[in-house]
Specification:
The protein is mainly α and 263 residues long. Among the domains are: 4-73; 174-262, Arc Repressor Mutant, subunit A. Helix content is 50%, strand content 8%. The chain contains 8 helices and 7 strands. It has helices spanning 14-22, 33-46, 52-73, 82-119, 146-157, 177-191, 196-199, 206-222; strands at 4-6, 11-13, 174-175, 194-195, 225-228, 237-240, 261-262. Helix 1 packs parallel to helix 3 (52-73) and helix 6 crosses helix 8 (206-222). The longest helix has 38 residues, at 82-119. The model is unreliable at 244-263 (pLDDT under 50).
Amino acid sequence: MAAHVHTRVFEGPIDVLFQLVSEHKLDVYDVPLAEIVDRFLAEIVDRRPLDLETCSEFLLVAALLVELKSRTLLPGPDVVEDDEELAGFEERDRLLARLYELQAYAAAADVFASLIEGAAHTVPRLAGLEERFRDAAPELLAGLTAEQLATSYLLVLAQPAVPSLDLSHVTVEAVTVSEAVAELEERLPSDSPLSFRQLTSHCTTRMQVIVRFLALLELFKRGWVDLDQGTTFGDLQVSWTGRSSADGEGQGGPLREAEEYDG
């Protein structure tokens, strides 16, 4: 059975009082917790035997009410509008920027102060050149002729030479697609099918392999060869399906000779 409390704002079981306070139907400020505890202790003295369950329930609810009331008494965070909060951030950023500027000016002032302090230990030369040394200055143009001066002037105005890269030592290998097509037309009708690896086994440079691959594409476009690759990254099989080299060029038209490739 819950303990009963008697106050000027509520009279009944203490668990009902806690429920009303939790649901904001009763202001915890109006509940005199000290008075409730004093009256409950007075009733406990008169009760015999002591009901531990009722005492435990009263202590639990009373502790919760004390916590709720203490929270409301302590100052909480102020409710600030978004515009006011943003304005506060702007003022803060402005103050920080001014602080950084002041720090920069203070650092510059320290540098000037150290320079001034260092200059205070120096003694400037107040006297000029002695009279006997005024006419002893060296002649800067001594030994320079007008022709040498003109030559120097022309060198300054002359345009710098454009650097050039000498490629005379580079060996250029000229390979055409038309030659590779003629070679494949002569070989494939009798040796087909062949793999691309076999067709390029005699090639010694990468450019020769590339040109023969382009020649295969040209023959495939004409419909004279069939290309097959059974597996991914496998050997490319080439089969001759077109006309013989003795026929004319009427089927595919004249081959546009590719530009020369530099190996």
